Amino acid sequence: MSGTELSQTRAWVLAARPQTLPAAAAPVVVGAGLAWHAGVFAPLPMLAAFVGAALIQIGTNFANDYYDAIQGADTEAREGFTRVTQSGLIEPQSVKRAMYLTFAAAIGVGSYLVYVGGLPILVIGLLSVVSGIAYTGGPYPLGYHGLGDLFVFLFFGVIAVVGTYYVQATAVLADPLSTTIPPNTVTWTAFLASLPVAALSTNILVVNNIRDREEDATTGKRTLAVRFGYRFSRLQFAGLGGLAYAVPVWLWLAEGFAATVLLPLVTLPIAAVLTRTVWTETSGAALNPALETTGKLLAAYSGLFGLGLAL
Question: Which fold does the domain 3-310 belong to in CATH?
Fold first, then answer.
């Protein structure tokens, strides 16, 4: 392989940002654990849910790389990880084409899930793809108007976990191609279990927005950190972390789950160190490692949570 080919391969890996894939895997792990607990675990729909979620994550990463560059949100002052469009490593149109191809692949995988889960999954899948593009693209980019946090909380948390549980429960309890939501396939417990994943996934974005606050303010990207300042975002980070660790306790005390559901609490020391870093730092040198660690925390928490739910 030539040096140019190696450079291009590395550039595409950078654009896909595989370090963000825990945000795609986490809701599937939790949804699978809950499905096992409820006796509706279905491996093929679960696997398809993961592949679809990963493709939507990667497609969203391509979209962010492309649209942030062409809209001027990525500048030389950026302290985050390398963006291939802004840095000239890959032609903008190639990144845009990769974005559409990845979303098309997600829709292809989703066609099986639509067969299993029916019309509700078709609606959720199309909304997920459109929102992935609209996060930084389109006439009203969500991430540029302080709506990125809500997008992540809903689509990479609540909808992803509940949707993973739903396709498994529907495969076991209902006929294919349903036009309505079958009984016992969307549950209060699934919603509760989605909240920690939603909270910790959003905290990845919160760290990113704190790190980029000064640059975003100069380029017109009105994240919540830009709108309301460092203190608000730090309180947001702490509050979302608190929500994540309160849910297992609630499931144990109020919902009748076994004490194994408390397994994620062993990651509390990591969360405490991260909170201290986020509360005191603003530089990329400090927050880039914190960003990676928040992703690892999400993966560890979700693995333990899924296991605790299943047991």
Answer: Farnesyl Diphosphate Synthase (1.10.600)
